């Protein structure tokens, strides 16, 4: 509707990058906040994630850093084919508040976090009565292009 050319880009490492991102986030969270374990000040979900990060070995951390670099390379090749990549923010509608853990299996953002590239999330109206979201992903330094594209797309989505 906005008049942009659309091409398909295959990102074969997307699912693994998401898993690697979550493992790296857990390890980094433990490094920064592990001292809070046993304080009684954490919710069960946060405590579980920190405990998972505590189990990350040096070898696994090294593997994750190598995976990050490999994923950055895969995304860089994709940006050669398309200046921006569009994906959903979630793979389904937002979960109900009664099932917050479902968010972890729906989100499509960790792969972008692992690469450290800029992204922009835009609401997309649906016939279901509540919006879903579109994620625009760009190469390093593309923040202005992402924002300008978002400005064009947002009215087209409505």
Give a summary of the structure in a few sentences.
With 158 residues, the chain is mainly α. It is 51% helix and 10% strand.
Description:
By secondary structure, the protein is mainly alpha-helical. It is 51% helix and 10% strand. Strands 1-3-2 form a 3-stranded antiparallel β-sheet, with helices on one face.
- Please provide the count of β strands: 3
> Would you tell me the structural class of the helices and strands?
mainly alpha
| Largest beta sheet: strand ordering | 1-3-2
Runs with pLDDT <50, length 5+? none
Residues in helices, as a percent range:
40-55%
Order of helices and strands: HHHEHHEEH
Please state roughly what percent of the residues sit in beta strands, choosing from under 5%, 5-15%, 15-25%, 25-35%, 35-45% or over 45%. 5-15%
Keywords:
158 residues; 6 helices; mainly alpha; 51% helix; 3 strands; 3-stranded antiparallel sheet
Task: Give the topology.
Elements lengths: L13 H20 L10 H11 L3 H24 L3 E4 L13 H5 L3 H6 L3 E6 L7 E6 L5 H15 L1
Antiparallel strand pairs: 1-3, 2-3
